[in-house]
Design goal:
The chain is mainly alpha-helical. The protein is elongated and about 135 Å long. The longest helix is centred in the C-terminal third of the chain and has 20 residues.
Length: 786
């Protein structure tokens, strides 16, 4: 009988193990895998391994046997935990070389995961847990150890246990726990309950034993009742084990044992509130919950400094923690209700200026010491240093006013002079705190040796409502410390901005038109007022955009037909404004030789003029009584009695009023001045306004008769705005134009001579004639021509 030959020795093609191999150079386990892969049984087939990348028989998880052996041997923990967490690492990872030795069986190569579906729970094999054991579960924050022999000043507050607290002290060593567990096993055997019941009662027993007072072996009955569940069973087990203390005599009412200290600030009030009323208000105002940067508790914190209310009160009231670090045993607790700290900690800031407390003098001394230790700014402007490039605008929005640099001697002189300037003007320093604050910031960072740019003053004034810059600019201009900007008219700037928003071809044409209107064309011309320029451009801009949308890309393509089509759907003032604007624009473009012909030259617009009508007498009765103040009454009287327009009232100057003769000169640019003879009422109102003006602004140098709070103190001496003149009529409920029209109509009704209207009110010939014809419609012939 022939002897059976031993299989040859070699390295397996699949798992790279050295030992006896078959004719295909495979070890016996890999040979069986190949057979199963060919038949498709046991979920195996031939594919590229997800780990090493070689084409081999793989299991249902897509990995070969060699990779599973390497992971089982602990050679690739990264791949092992990636499989457990359902991750996907790239292939190409190394395999482990193994030996097939007699009597040594390799570990079972089973997949680490079988499913990739997210809803399937992944089980971790036991050998994986052995490689990375779970950490010790003993949270020191749950029932921390206490000092034995320490007497409590107040009754212990009720503990807020949950069923999860038992798992957090799973590994803590507790004396007498074995006795309670033995009794729980007896109770479980008698009741025939499952293991889940035993685990739950075992955790509650751990909590009861951990909550014992220091130096006591038995558990108090009130602690057992504070367990979240199973407290009757736990009490029975403790009583059988001899660990349940007898009931004590009640020292305080039962309702006082439920709640006592606030859960946020620890204030003791015994008012059955888990959180005191002050902390509830704090939680309402500061809804953001986060970790306090001082005590590291997760509570409602303020966004400004990241402190909870407890830390805010401690640092503000006691001032023992200047560094903002919670010290062990260094926080002062307090009682609640009436004896609780009454500091307003909602708007306070820490560190920095705070509300008044018990240490006001100490705080002021610390702040003075801090200010004395500050150094001068590193950005002081040197007047002898020339600028090589145009400096970029400064970013004042990142300014921290609590850390301003120290003032230089020159800057201190400027601040003292500004305070004297305020007192000289008769102003209150408390009311001008915003101006003082603005100047303090500027001289602290830029110094006072060089001129301060006006743009920086305006930017600092916009930081908040507590910063003002108008009086600072006036003061710096008076002292020669202001680097003024080029004056920009708001109406012209608005017109230029409207022109920039037009298409390119029309935008260039409108800019050239604005140059002609302002007297800056190729040939000199009479400039129009900025209001007129802005109104012209505003009326014409929509039509130019519509022409560009219709396909017209240049003003030279506009014809008379286009203008007529644009005017056809418009009526009244809209049609007249567009007609006047287009006629002015094309006349200016023809003058600058930007168009070949003027398409608006031959277009005439017929506009119906409304005849003036008088106002009802009931609207004029008691008109001055509805307007408060001497200035507003004077404005209404000049319009209602002497028919002055709003623009004429704004241009009146102090020197134009001759109180000795009772005359008022009205300036009319381009025409002769008009003299108004004041009546007794208007003269008394003018005198009362002059007296009030001198009392309110004794140092006012504004030359205009009508001034406001802003124009009276502005050293540029501007006219008052339109709103100042319109406000009295709005309060009286009447239009200024209607009131002036009623006065002219009333005078025309009294006389049939238009020359009288011209002499009394200074109106033009056409206006006087129109009012006379409206008052006397039976006379069709012009009296001047007759």
């Amino acid at each position: 009988m022939a002897r059976r030959q031993r299989p040859p020795l070699g390295s397996c093609e699949y798992c790279a193990s050295w030992g006896e191999v078959t004719m295909h150079w495979l070890c016996p386990p890999c040979g069986r895998l190949r057979i199963w892969a060919g038949s498709g049984t046991h979920g195996r087939h031939m594919a590229d391994c997800r780990r090493c990348g070689y084409r081999q028989p793989v299991g249902r998880d897509g990995t070969c046997r060699a990779c599973l052996l390497a992971v089982r041997a602990g050679q690739d923990e990264e791949w092992m935990w990636s499989e457990v967490k359902r991750g996907h690492l790239p292939p190409g990872r190394p395999r482990q070389l193994t030996f097939a030795l007699a009597g040594i069986v390799p570990p079972d190569a089973r997949p680490l995961r079988y499913h990739d579906q997210p809803m399937v729970r992944q089980k971790i094999p036991p050998w994986v847990r052995e490689l990375c054991p779970a950490p010790v579960r003993d949270d020191p924050r749950v029932c921390p150890p206490q000092m034995p022999g320490q007497l409590g000043l107040f009754p212990a507050p009720r503990r807020a246990f949950t069923k999860y607290h038992a798992a957090r002290i799973h590994d803590r060593h507790l004396p007498d726990l074995e006795l309670v567990v033995a009794e729980l096993k007896k109770i479980a055997k008698r009741r025939e309950v499952k293991d889940a019941w035993f685990r739950l009662t075992w955790g509650m027993s751990r909590l009861a034993l951990a909550a014992r007072e220091p130096g006591e072996r038995q558990v108090r009955p009130e602690l057992v009742r504070q367990l979240p569940m199973m407290h009757p069973t736990v009490g029975e087990a403790l009583e059988r084990a001899g660990l349940l203390a007898p009931k004590r005599a009640r020292l305080v009412p039962a309702e006082e044992l439920d709640h006592g200290a606030c859960g946020h600030c620890f204030a003791w009030a015994n008012d059955r509130l888990t959180v005191c009323l002050e902390c509830r208000q704090w939680s309402y105002l500061h809804r953001g919950t986060g970790d306090c940067r001082r005590c590291h508790r997760r509570l409602p914190v303020a966004e400004s400094d990241g402190l909870c209310r407890f830390c805010r009160v401690v640092t503000t009231e006691t001032e023992v923690d200047f560094a903002g670090i919670a010290m062990a045993g260094g926080d002062q607790l307090w009682l609640g209700r009436e004896v609780a700290p009454q500091l307003r900690t909602i708007d306070a800031r820490y560190p920095g200026p705070r509300r008044k407390g018990r240490f006001e003098s100490k705080r002021k001394l610390a702040q003075a010491t801090e200010r004395a230790a500050r150094t001068a700014s590193a950005h002081l402007v040197d007047p002898g240093q020339l600028e090589l490039f145009q400096p970029p605008p400064r970013a004042w929005n990142r300014l921290d006013e609590t850390e301003l640099p120290a003032l230089t001697p020159r800057a201190e002189e400027v601040m003292a002079d500004f305070a004297a300037y305020i007192d000289q003007r008769g102003w209150s320093r408390e009311q001008l705190g915003g101006s003082i604050r603005t100047l303090r910031i500027l001289v602290a960072y830029l110094g006072a040796d060089s001129k301060i740019p006006e743009s920086d003053v305006k930017v600092v004034a916009t930081l908040s409502s507590n910063h003002q810059g108008a009086r600072v600019i006036n003061y710096l201009r008076r002292r020669g410390l202001l680097a003024a900007e080029d004056p920009v008219d708001g109406q012209l700037a608005a017109a230029r901005k409207t022109a920039d928003g037009l298409p390119k071809a029309f935008s260039d044409a409108v800019h050239a038109w604005i140059d002609v209107l302002t007297g800056q064309g190729s040939r000199p011309s009479q400039p129009r007022t900025p209001d007129t320029v802005n109104r012209y451009v505003r009326d014409v801009a929509p039509t130019l955009r519509a022409w560009h949308t219709a396909g017209l890309g240049d003003p030279r393509e506009i014809t008379t037909k286009h203008i007529e089509d644009a005017l056809k759907p418009r009526r009244g003032n809209a049609a007249r404004g567009l007609h006047v604007g287009l006629r002015s624009m094309f006349r200016a473009l023809k003058r600058e030789r930007l168009v070949f012909r003027d398409p608006a030259r031959t277009i005439a617009l017929t506009v119906a003029r409304h005849l003036p009508t008088p106002l009802p007498s009931d609207r004029l009765r008691g008109l001055l009584g509805k307007v408060p103040g001497a200035r507003d009454k004077l404005i209404v009287a000049l319009t209602a009695v002497h028919a002055l327009a709003a623009t004429q009232i704004r241009r009146l100057r102090l020197e134009d009023l001759d109180r000795a003769r009772g005359q008022l000169r009205v300036r009319r640019p381009g025409r002769m001045d008009h003299v108004v003879y004041l009546d007794e009422l208007t003269m008394n109102l003018a005198t009362a306004w002059i007296v009030e003006r001198v009392e309110r602004w004794p140092d006012c140098t504004n030359p205009y008769l009508i001034v406001s709070n802003q124009s009276a103190v502005d050293d540029l001496h501007p006219m008052v705005s339109d709103e100042v003149v319109k406000t009295p009529f709005e309060r009286a409920g009447i239009s200024a134009g209607k009131l002036r029209q009623d006065r002219l109509f009333d005078e025309a009704r009294e006389t049939e001579d238009p020359v009288r209207l011209i002499r009394v009110f200074g109106v033009s010939n056409a206006t006087a004639t129109r009012y006379v014809q409206a008052a006397h419609p039976d006379k069709k012939v012009d009296p001047i021509q007759a």
